[in-house]
Amino acid sequence: MATMNVSLPDLMREWVESQIEQGEYASSSDYIRDLIRQDQRRQKLLKAALNEGLGSGRSPRTAEDILQETRKKLTDG
Fold first, then answer.
1. pLDDT tens digits, 3-34
2. Please, what sign has the CA dihedral across residues 64, 70, 72, 75?
3. Rounded distance, CA 69 to CA 21, Å?
């Protein structure tokens, strides 16, 4: 496993330390690894959603149709 040094502002360092103190993570490395895994999952889901959208074809609705529908939903609750 490789080692990486990361510089953090004091408030971020305190946040990481508080997560460790609360028992959420065993170490700062554990916390950072979890953040990276979450980011990887998020990017994978985003790419899948974009590909699904691109593959779905064009909508028959116009931008104005969509805006009117959204305005109606907002005003009707």
1. 999 999 999 999 999 999 999 999 999 999 99
2. negative
3. 48
